[in-house]
């Protein structure tokens, strides 16, 4: 099966099953429907031309952020301090569980995320 990672996400379940999910409406899914994807990991891909408009954190697990192309600074709040991780061309960072993070886009970018999304929180930038 061939997938376009920008229009089809993949959920890797606790039982080892991989389930394709339509990106359309995924983030607006009712909580009852989203609960079935609480366990396991979700793989998503996004393109960015602007800075992220918010901060986020994932209390259920670390997040793998992989820059496929472009340039971005990933900002992480750790131990009361701001840590900036510069990524350019290709590179990855592990965002520790529960760490607030956002991104400043230096050049149009494509990023792949592997996230344990249950309980994800957002706050304005």
TrEMBL record:
Q: Which domain of life is it from?
A: Bacteria
The UniProt entry, under InterPro entries, shows: RmlC-like_jellyroll, RmlC_Cupin_sf
Please report the name of this protein according to its UniProt entry. Cupin domain-containing protein
What is the protein's species of origin? [Empedobacter] haloabium
